[in-house]
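U., I forgot to send this yesterday:
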Amino acid sequence: MTALDTAPRGRLPAGFDPRTMPVLGTDAALPAVPAEMLTAQALRQRFAAPPAWEPEVRAEPSLLRGSLPPAAAAVLLALLPRPQGLSVLLTERTQQLSSHAGQVAFPGGRMDAGDASAADAALREAQEEVGLERRFVDIIGQLPVYLTGTRFAVTPVVALVREGFALRHNPQEVASVFDVPLAFLMNPAHHRRHRIIFDGQAREWFSMPYDDDVDGVRVQRFIWGATAGMLRNFYRFLSAPMR
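Result:
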């Protein structure tokens, strides 16, 4: 079990279900990232010579009382090779976890004292959670730190996964492993906006529901919160004009 799973639960309204929250709208007016920019070669070049850009979401309103210092954490935004193009590796957390149970997340967790870097922590967590071996993973860059409402300062580590990898998830932490086409996630027409007032404070977030096919059965993968926020920042990074 990762250290993230022992973090205090965030405070949300009783009965809060992100799937049922009103949708303010989508960003269909924004352009999708072109397909030619979503290849492994293009992504390597993008991180090697990044554009001038700003992340759209840097921090979520705190869900915890007091002023706890943020804990350093890292997640692996792993891009898998698929016949239709690159796909983003995601997990569904098990229901018994003490925080964020049942939510969709990147592999990742709190940084340990023995981790040499955020990339090292993300690779360790990915191997522990979904069995992704480091030898198949090429780190190509990082996105800006994202501060979650539960006071984790998360570094998204972006990586390309080579052919030959295998996934074996840890059933204590991960209920299922799946992937979503990068092209779907980099199209703002699929980015839904939500907003509620709680404790006198406005809270806004994105969701990116994806209809998956699991053995002929439709399963909705509901991506929201911090995971959706980091994906939105990835969109802003890829769609920013070059200098």
